[in-house]
Amino acid sequence: MEAAYNVLHVQDDVALREEIKQKQDEFLDVYSLYLKTGVSWVRDELRLKAYELHLLDPSFSFQI
């Protein structure tokens, strides 16, 4: 079985803030799509985006 890995490499605070902003934008796009459609695979993608954002910002949490 093959596993998918996300690799995050952040060099400084500016790069971290930019990466967090990008992940927040991605999360909000998927969240908006989920609210419009309610489709299960979009919900799964939303959970993945929330997890990725939490990895960058441990204070971020989201429940659906």
Strand coverage percent:
under 5%
**Structural class by secondary-structure content:** mainly alpha
Structure summary, number of beta strands: 0
Distance between the termini: 29 Å
Q: Could you say which overall geometry the principal axes of the C-alpha atoms support?
A: globular
Mean pLDDT: 89
In sequence order, what are the helices and strands, one letter per element? HH
Count of runs of 4 or more consecutive helical residues: 2
- Sheet bearing the most strands, described? none
Helix content: 55-70%
Low-pLDDT segments: none
Q: Return Rg in Å.
A: 13 Å
Characterise this structure.
This protein has 64 residues and is mainly alpha-helical. It contains two helices and no strands. The longest helix has 25 residues, at 13-37. The mean pLDDT is 89.
Quick structural summary:
The protein is mostly helical and 64 residues long.
